[in-house]
UniProtKB/TrEMBL annotation:
Cofactor: FAD
MF (Gene Ontology): 2-octaprenyl-6-methoxyphenol hydroxylase activity; FAD binding
Bilayer-crossing regions: 12-36
Protein name: 2-octaprenyl-6-methoxyphenyl hydroxylase
Gene that produces this protein: ubiH
Naturally occurring in which organism (per UniProt): Litoribrevibacter albus
Amino acid sequence: MSSSHQEINSTLAYDYAIVGGGMAGLTMALLLAPVLEANKQRLVIIEAFDPQGGHYQPSFDARSTALSEGTRRILDQLGLWSSLAKRVCAIDQIHVSQKGGFGSTRMSASECQVDHLGYVIENAWFGQCLMDAIAELECVDWLAPAKVEQLTQQEQGQLLTLDDGRSVSTSFLMVADGAQSSLRDKLGIQANRTAYQQHALVCNVSTRLAHQQVAYERFTPNGPLALLPLTESRSALIWSVPEGQIAERMAMSDREFIQLLEQEFGTRLGPITKVGKRASYPLSLMRVTDQVRPGVVLLGNSAHALHPVAGQGFNLIIRDLVCLRDAIEARLASHQNLKELTWLSQYQDHRQLDQWLTTSFSHWLIELFSNDHRWLKRLRELGLIALDRVGPVKATFARQAMGLGLGAN
């Protein structure tokens, strides 16, 4: 990563700017790096948090991320997988059950004729690997800590005025500053939200029995919980907790919390022997229909944010990023500029089906399993039994869970 730049009348000039140095923004920069080098172009990442000062981007916290096989291949192409693999755990089976019900289903990699159903990585390690890779790029600069205070449309692109007084001009702007994107608001783009009245409670736990690379999805009247396999015989807990209960659960002693978790999850992995530091964040479905402007595109959680129940958020983002990278590369190869709206609208149309299906799949799971009406609970039990016994239905569900469903590419 270089600190050099072209300066015009005290304004830093770049071909591309990415606002947001989280998982989506940094991955996009790495995907674009060969294109930048081939076309002698430069990119700047503008990030509110300074990694040099130890203030890491919020997405690189105690959470873990589920990766599909398609995502693994992309990360391998970027040269990241060898580093990531040191802290990655494969998922070989997925076990889905409902508390208080007799139906359950188990999907295995062998049934689906794949090596693994997916992978799990801790966000902190993922973030470190991304930043290490970015640091090696001469075509990418980093401005941090810095926030965009003002956005001005110009003939040649966008002018970004930063909170430290600097200005950045760019021909093509990628907005990746998260679900609460302030830049999206400055662009006048509306986000459609559905609040789940839930918070995700996340932490790592250790259990008496080894997880054997099984991911557990457990639906309860008080919200779904997942235990995803990690390295060192640990599991990542993602527990969707009703809004009115999150403060109490965060305040519990470790002993009280373990007792409650064992009550909800059961004893499949034996007693829980240790629980790590807990964190929480509110859950909602967020969709943006209009994700592009001339020379501007929303990426990552700025464009869509979904419930973590199916573990498909980052995999959907990766598919967006690869599609955009390919569209940019094709545009440059035909010597056309990036500021026109037509090609960006085509990109948006191309991604629309996958985005809708993936977000709807996660939303459907929450709606189906969060309602505790007796007849619906019975229907869920029968559905899980059918899912376990009807091969084509099970295969379709497994492909969607792996991020390989209709609309994915």
